[in-house]
Each structure stands twice: as structure tokens, then as C-alpha cells.
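Retro notes
What went well: the complex prediction finally ran end to end.
Inputs used:
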Amino acid sequence: MAQRKNISDAVVRRLPRYLRYLSEMHEHGVPRISSRELGERMGLTPSQIRQDFSHFGEFGQQGYGYRVGDLLAAIRHILALDREYHMVVFGAGNIGQAVAKYPNFSERGFLIDALFDTDPELVGKKVEGIKVLHWDKAAQYLKNHSVDIGVICVPHAAGQEVADRLIQGGVRSIWNFPPRDLSVPEDVLVENVHLSESLYALVFRSKHRDTCGGQKG
Amino acid sequence: MAQRKNISDAVVRRLPRYLRYLSEMHEHGVPRISSRELGERMGLTPSQIRQDFSHFGEFGQQGYGYRVGDLLAAIRHILALDREYHMVVFGAGNIGQAVAKYPNFSERGFLIDALFDTDPELVGKKVEGIKVLHWDKAAQYLKNHSVDIGVICVPHAAGQEVADRLIQGGVRSIWNFPPRDLSVPEDVLVENVHLSESLYALVFRSKHRDTCGGQKG
DNA sequence: TAGATTGTTAATCGATTAACAATC
DNA sequence: TAGATTGTTAATCGATTAACAATC
């Protein structure tokens, strides 16, 4: 019954985690898994796992469970990871370079085609084989290239301006690192990675260790 | 009625966001804010905001709202950001260095005292004024220094081993970047930052743009 | 005082868990 | 066949929203 209703954010956040566990099992040659056993490994209830999968179709077999390889392929497809994505990164500082150099991304089909910065020290150089262009070239670049995802790694004061440029250039998915919420049109998606807020949450739970607890994030 | 019940993760994740908005308002000299107006700015309902705050005490005034400065100080205290934290980072690669160099952290009292790596090219050098030590020195270091937070930025195959070393050395809060869940004793807290999973969630929502939507993360 | 807005209690909504018929 | 396990419907649990008395 592939996707009748809206998928809740809670489910969306669990999908990549299923992918990770299944990938690992698949690499280890595990041929089948039941929701009970997967739940034990991941710390979820079997009910939740079956409920989650049922949003997208029927992937298991009564009395048997799930074929790891098939389920893995299905989730990869559900997450739309069976294609390539073209990305550009604004801001070639620490975080921008870390993103550009992160090997998992290119392996997984996330291709970083260009870096943009204003620093004359950086512009014209290459980082990990990716050319660093000046911001002034961005509009031109976006006109001539199809970009699926724009990554914002500039200081937070410049974040909104960069977002505006990306949107102006037709980019509709933004991965946003600076600690500021962006205002964007309805049809543009923003995924935030706010490192400080993650750290603050850790510190809070650490202070209130007794009342909270466990592994999060 | 400061913290009678457990604080849900949803609330914990909103607290840093309140802090961010209030900081900004405070910097702009805004003296007061009502839950209605704060809700409008943040995209939350006034009810939720009042409900959230009420977990920790009474910070407002009927008919008036909240004094921005006071509320900011209260939330800073609730988040335990009114003290310093000593951190060590394992893995001085791209992400480890990005964390070490991130200026917001030291400004906010998150002090990175040491980096650990195995790469002989890096060991002995300094990154942003922080000495890079060999992993072999970690046990010794942890014996002699009080470390509040251990940051894991090593390749994911080494993550669990590093976690074990940190825990062995008495560290009870771990900020974990590699894409693998750690197994830790009950009294150890782990906060995960799984970049790929964040990116996958963006891609999923992008594919199903109509059924999901908005700003997340 | 009158208007505004809080903190809290009650109602609603949504997500998780349990139960179970279907069936491999 | 008997045992196991699915997909789904129903029950429960928790989080969000609405309502409102208290009061600045």
C-alpha cells in the first residue's frame, strides 16, 4: 500500500538507521532477519518495525521474516539512494571542507561538484579535487549546472543570503549547518545540522542524567 | 515546580532553539516577549512554549510576558551552559579538526584540551593551538585530567574501541560522529551526529516533497 | 480598571505498542 | 502439519493544543 498517508518525521529518521543495520548484516552475509531480532539489535519493538515498513509496502514473508538483501534494496529505493545527487557547498572553511572530503558521500552517489567561497586565498584552488569558485560565479554556475542539494557552511550571518542565492538559482533542497533557521519558500526543503544544539542537548541530559538517559541523536 | 517529571526528548531538542532565538532578541535589545510572539517567530504554538517552560519553573508574568534577559539566563542555566566543559577529541581528521576549530565552542565554554590520533604525521603537532597526542597516551591523559565530554571523530570501524577507552578513562558523556551506534553502560550518555543520516532524510523528503515538507533537523 | 498573558488543567491528536487472523 | 512471523487493526500511551481561572 505504498505510502497512502504522510510519513511522519519519526519514521523518516528511522529509515536511514534501518539501512545502516541492514547494510551491515548484508555485508556479514546474514540472509534473513525477523522483526523481533532486528528490534532486539536496534532497540525497537517488532511492532514498530513492521508498522514502519508497512507504510511502503509488504517486504516480508509470514513465518520467515525478511530477506536482508531484498529489504535493503527496498529501503535504499524508498530513501531514493539508488541514484546520484549533485551538490555544491558554500563556504570552504572547516566544516565545508570536512563535508567535501567526507568519503562516504561520494561513495554513496553524493557528488560535490563545486565549492564556493569569498576568501581569495581559497578561490581558484582545489580541495580534494573540487574547484573552489568565488561567490560571484554562483549565479552563473547554477544557471549552467543542475544542482540537487545546496550545502551551507558559511558563518551564520551569511547563511540567509546564501540560501537566497541557491533558491534564486533553482536549488530546492538545502543542507544547512550554521546555527540559524532559514526563511525559504514553501517548496524548498531545509535540513538543519546544528552542531551546538546537539552538544547542548548532550550537556542537558548529562546534567539531568537520572531523569533522561540512553543513546540519542 | 522545577522538573517533577522526566523531560521528553522533544522538549530537550527545543531548549537550545529557545536559547538561540532569545540570545538574538537579547542582542537586539528586545526587552520582553510573549509566548504568542515567540511562537510566531519560531513556528510553535504559544501553548507549547508555555508548557515547555513550565517544566522548569515560572519565568513569566501574567499580562506582561517574559523578560528576555531573565528568560535567557534561566534557559542557559537549565541547559547547564553557565559553566565550562573540558573535552577531548579522538580523531584529528576532517571532522575532528572542524570540531576543534569551531569558534562557537570555545566562546561558549566548551574547551577542547587535547586531540588524539594515530597518524604519525599529526601526532606532536598542534591544531589551533591544541596538541595532538597519540592514542597510546590516552589512558594516561584521562587518568590525570578531568574530561567532561569525549568526542569521537575516527573512522567508524574504530568508534567502539575509542568509546571503550573513553569510558575506561572515566568519561561519561560521548559525542559520536561515526555512523555506528555505540554500546555503552547505562550511566554513559551518547549523543549521535550522523551526517549521512541527516542527508538521507533530506533526500527522502525531497523525493516525497508533497507528502512531507518544511524545515527539519 | 480593562486588556493581556501567564501557568495549568482538560481535550485532542498522533505515535507506539499489543493483539491476532492470515499464511508461509 | 506445526511453529513462526507477517501485515493490520485496535488499544494504549504520550505529546501537543485548547481552554480558562488567576493576576499583573
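What we learned: The CA atoms of residues 157 and 180 of chain B lie 8 Å apart.
What to try next: split runs per interface for comparison.
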